[in-house]
Amino acid sequence: MKAIQCNAFGPLEDLVLADLPDPTAGPGQVVIAVKAAGVNFPDGLLVQGLYQLQPPTPFVPGTEAAGIVVEVGEGVRHLSEGQRVFCCNLLNCYAEKLVVDARQVLPLPDTIPFEEAAGLITAHATAHHALKQRANLQAGETLLVTGAAGGTGLAAVQIGKAMGARVIAVCSTAEKLAIAQANGADVLINYSEKNLKDELKTLTEGKGVDVVYECVGGDTFNACARNMAWNGRLLVVGFASGKIPELAVNLALVKGFSLVGVFWGTFTQKQPSDFADNMQELLQWYLAGKVKVHVDQLFPLADAQQALRKVLNRQAIGKVILKP
């Protein structure tokens, strides 16, 4: 089979399209013929050795995929050959075939295209976990989403609306803000034209924001930290700007807000039943039209370098998908 392989941590240009042996299913596993794989910001950091996790090399990157089951291992009862599915995995999704723990695989309704299903897990599931388990977002609260037109930011906008929040979208261009608005954002802030800290203070009349879904870092994080409401929750999701901020902890003291980390990959491993429940709720929201996957661009598997570069450069609006 063909797969994208990282032989050593380094620039994206070092990734290769390799011929690898077809995987086989062991007990409790299935093999999936991959029809689409989602491209995510952490994938690009991982292959460069810049992510929190550093697997042994060589490895095949990719954390989410959709396709058809072609082999079922011993003990698997809820899946069968020929079934449409989608899954998450720590690695190995940038390939024509994937072997994965069957507990990480979900049946895919016929009404959901593979390309959208492949973009539904990581971004939407991260936002869902963040807003549900980590922030305990309540209807009527104010939710601020930074990077609101990216894959996970756009998901947070949709899910925040599904949970009944008033959503403030923060983006760098008018085009991105228009996408966020089309996906449910109530208030729009272009931080390249306005001072984010001052704008948030004005919009909230000095009360601050209840929940911040923060995936940019740097100065954006600092502006959010200074505009938190009492009992607010500042969610640390990522650092797309490349700048990991430092929190002036006296702000948390005097404003009475919580800094809450969000690491979805570990959540799926430590709380698998909660992950399964979340995915069922996401599917119901998808089928009801409350959430959707905005596919920005499809790339062939061989062009994984270009796909990752687009995501890392923050040029993607919604999700970028690989097609083996």
UniProtKB/TrEMBL annotation:
Keyword Secreted carried by entry: no
Keyword set includes rRNA-binding: no
Annotated Enoyl reductase (ER) domain residues: 10-322
CDD domains: QOR1
Record-given protein name: NADPH2:quinone reductase
Stored InterPro entries: ADH-like_C (IPR013149), ADH-like_N (IPR013154), ER (IPR020843), GroES-like_sf (IPR011032), NAD(P)-bd_dom_sf (IPR036291), Quin_OxRdtase/zeta-crystal_CS (IPR002364), Zn-ADH-like_protein (IPR051397)
Family matches, as PROSITE patterns: QOR_ZETA_CRYSTAL
Coiled coil: none
Known EC number: 1.6.5.5
Source species: Simiduia aestuariiviva
Pfam family, one: ADH_N
Top-level enzyme category: oxidoreductase
Keywords, in A-Z order: Oxidoreductase
GO molecular function, one term: zinc ion binding
